[in-house]
From TrEMBL:
Protein name per Swiss-Prot or TrEMBL: Cytochrome C
Region (Disordered): 1-29
InterPro entries on file: Cyt_c-like_dom_sf
Highest taxon listed in the record's lineage: Bacteria
Length: 43
């Protein structure tokens, strides 16, 4: 679920302020998303 949310984005969950986009935004691969989520969950 977290990997899908990371890749797809969406509405903010913690208030009404939308996080600004970085310029340029490189695409994130499924493998990179998995690695990031696993790292965060193990911190």
């Amino acid at each position: 679920m977290l990997e899908k949310k990371l890749l797809a984005g969406g509405k903010p969950h913690w208030g009404d302020i939308t996080m600004p986009e970085a310029d340029p935004v490189p695409p994130l691969s499924s493998d990179d998303a998995h690695t990031l989520i696993q790292w965060v969950l193990h911190q």
